[in-house]
Amino acid sequence: MRKKIVAGNWKMNKNPFEAVEFAKKLQNEINNNNYCESIIFVPSIDLFCISEVLKASKIKIGAQNFYFENNGAYTGEISAQMLKEIDVNYALVGHSERRILFGETDEVINKKIAKALEYKITPVLCVGENLEERENNLTVELIRLQIKRALKNINLKNAGEIIIAYEPIWAIGTGKTADKNQAQEICREIRKVLGEIYNLKLASQIRILYGGSVNLKNAEELFEMQDIDGGLIGGASLTEDFILIANNICKTNFADIKI
Ligand code: PGA
């Protein structure tokens, strides 16, 4: 059984005061159960205070970014080691905004994944195509390449060590969601390529999320698809809607209705 994940990507929103207030609200109102878990990916400046607030909570905390060295002259960066020291156990890697705006290459992404695993931080590897690539039928090829490059020489001992997020760039922050069949098709392809790199058993256990304009209206139908194990939610994770999505999903044991 693959447990669903409802993950929030706050991006560059919420200062520490707002973050603490919202984290307390999430803690009080999200009732995670055995079918679903919640993770919030917050700005670096919020990580420490939130980790204090959510210490005893089931809600997990993730970083949006870190550098692949442990320490040293890397002005502006934080390390996986630092994250681990404050009990942050998840991190986004390869988000399209990092790739496009900050020039992160597949090689850098690969190093970050290796570093995260070294510190027992679960990386959420984000992959996705832009509109031009989709229109030119390059999506499958591109996603396969992104996955293969990101996971080059990465040995996984168990499926819980990594999470993948399929986030079509044209759907991020645009209000245009991939329809459930489009999203399912690519998530299935991702599982297939994971099977080729590792093995079918491991591939069948790795969680694959969909991200890109997930909201209260479309979350359920997306999360019901066979290879979609939850969502990485940007805009809607800053509001009450995140709580409603998490609680709504938690009511359903999808494991009963899918293989
Ligand atoms: P969005 O962002 O839900 O606002 O489209 C998703 C993401 O970038 O992770």
Helix segment count?
Answer: 12
Protein structure class: alpha/beta
Overall geometry comes to: globular
> How are strands sequenced across the largest beta sheet?
1-2-3-4-5-6-7-8
Bound small molecules, which ones? Answer: 2-phosphoglycolic acid
Cα end-to-end separation: 8 Å
Count of extended strands: 8
Rg measurement, Å: 17 Å
Helix content, binned percent: 40-55%
Reported for the largest beta sheet, the result is: 8 strands, parallel, barrel
Could you state the order of secondary-structure elements as H and E? EHEHEHEHHEHHEHHEHEHH
Determine the strand fraction and express it as a percent band.
Answer: 15-25%
Q: Catalogue the unreliable spans.
A: none
Query: On the 0-100 scale, what is the average pLDDT?
Result: 94
